[in-house]
Amino acid sequence: MVEYNPYAYATQEDPYPIYKRLRDEAPAYRNRELGFWALSRHADVQAALRDTELYSSRDGVSLDPSATHPDADATMSFLAMDPPRHTRMRALVYRAFTPRRVANLEPRIREIATGHIDGFIGRGECDFIQEFAGKLPMDVISEMLGVPEADRDPLRSWADTVLHREDGMLDVPPAGMEAAAKILNYFQELVADREKHPHDDLTGALLAAEIEGDRLTPREVLGFLFLMIIAGNETTTKLLGNALYWISKNPQEREKVRSDPSLIPRWIEETLRYDGSTQALARTLTQDLELHGEKLQEGDRLVVILGAASRDERVWEHPDRFDLMRNTNAMLSFGYGTHFCMGAALARLEGRVALEEVQRRFPNFEIAWEKLVRVHSINVRGFASMPIEFSP
């Protein structure tokens, strides 16, 4: 009988054979030991993401017991809200986090990217995660929020610690709880400062955002800042590492990018589909449900496996083939419907600029396979360390 434990798959080379068995043998899978259901077929995952009344986000998107509580929105912001609370929060955030604000970042993102590359290009080697992919998103988000440069490395370290899980660990460890508290304390001070001394940054814009007299509370701003520094930073870091990993594993596709850099956006999209940063999201059932012959009950916790849905052979031909020319429109890597990721445009922009600079400055990079270190996390897949070598 197939078994699925999301705590065990982040560090595997390829969890997708297990995902296929789930789709084929147990499309409504029950893990009785950990007390959750899991959906793995594209149609079921998409339906669950669409139906916010039946599949509630009120308890947050993580299975970690300590993350499932009435105040989950304190750290997960609108990820832990259902309409109409979610609708209101998202509309107000959108007033500050506009597409124009994101699009205008491109020159600065490129400047940050080239600055980091300048720091190691002469050596002919670097740790791609520690020296580039982990720094670029944090710098971009920090500048948006108004975080000084000196505070970015500690924030990144705390964010890494919040997500890290050792083997066999089934909840946020004490170090993760302590790191989360440090992040919250840091942003409490930043929000308090912006209330007294308004700035032209995203934090200030969030505090000033208004719709017919309705404004975000300082607590709501704090929750969104926490979400940005965790989700907005870590997922893009993992996307970049996964992109280098899978293009290196597929030399024919790599040659396409070398010959035609305009394919870089396709490289990003296929990486998101093939091995996305976010593998799974939790939901809570609001009523009894019968699905694939199984009886699910109101209040049950459920996991939608985005990574499994994105390799479903019912949607894609040869889904286990890394193919830059594939139509990826049906992928669910950024979610779907009401909860579609608000940061998707920023992640795609950062990814495109970063990979354009990789191809421009060190296109002949080679990964030191024996030195790779994967991240230990419940729902994020990627690398903590990726040493590479190249000829400048």
Structure report:
There is one protein chain. The chain is about 50% helix and about 10% strand. With about 400 residues, the protein is α+β, with helices and mostly antiparallel strands. The protein has one domain (about 5-390): Orthogonal Bundle (Cytochrome p450). The strands form five sheets. Strands 1-2-10-7-3 form a five-stranded mixed β-sheet, with helices on both faces. The protein starts with 15 loop residues before the first helix and ends with a strand. The mean pLDDT is about 90.
Could you write a compact summary of the structure shown?
This protein is an alpha+beta fold and 392 residues long. It contains 16 helices and 14 strands. The strands form 5 sheets. The protein has a 5-stranded mixed β-sheet with strand order 1-2-10-7-3, sandwiched between helices.
- Number of strand elements: 14
Number of helices: 16
Strand pairing plus helix content: what structural class?
A: alpha+beta
Q: What is the H/E order?
A: HEEHEHHHHEHHHHHEEHHHEEEEHHEEEE
Overall helicity:
40-55%
Tell me which CATH architecture applies here.
Answer: Orthogonal Bundle
Binned strand content: 5-15%
Strand order within the widest sheet?
1-2-10-7-3
Q: Determine the N-to-C terminus distance.
A: 50 Å
Question: Tell me, what is the CATH class?
Answer: Mainly Alpha
- The shape is globular
From the alpha-carbon coordinates, what is the Rg to the nearest angstrom? 20 Å
CATH superfamily: Cytochrome P450
* Average pLDDT taken over every residue: 91
Number of domains: 1
Largest beta-sheet details: 5 strands, mixed
- Catalogue the unreliable spans: none
Examine the coordinates and then state which fold CATH places here, giving the name of the CATH topology: Cytochrome p450
